[in-house]
Amino acid sequence: MEKIKVQVCTGTxxxxxxxxxxxxxxxxxxxxxxxxxxxxxxxxxxxxxxxWEYSKAxxxxxxxxxxxxxxxxxxxxxxxxxxxx
Length: 85
Ligand code: FES
Prior knowledge:
This protein has about 80 residues and is α+β, with helices and mostly antiparallel strands. The chain has a single domain (about 5-85), classed as Glutaredoxin (3-Layer(aba) Sandwich). Helix content is about 35%, strand content about 20%. It has helices at about 10-15, 25-35, 45-50, 70-85, and strands at about 5-10, 35-40, 60, 65. It has a four-stranded mixed sheet, with helices on one face. The N and C termini lie close together (about 10 Å).
């Protein structure tokens, strides 16, 4: 099975909109999923400028899926869903 790739946006918009809490994922993900899931910090994913009006930051990408208004719980849910498939 391919590894799931999680990208946590650490761009300014996402960071100030709550992305700073998402740094926890860097330790939670390896603990919970071992090497099935890879997590990395990313520069601005380019989503905040497209959807700026809606202010759905912070953003996290789980493979190609975008999690908006991301929280640790939402990201873990998105990963669990992928792993079920
Ligand atoms: S700062 Fe996160 S998508 Fe731009």
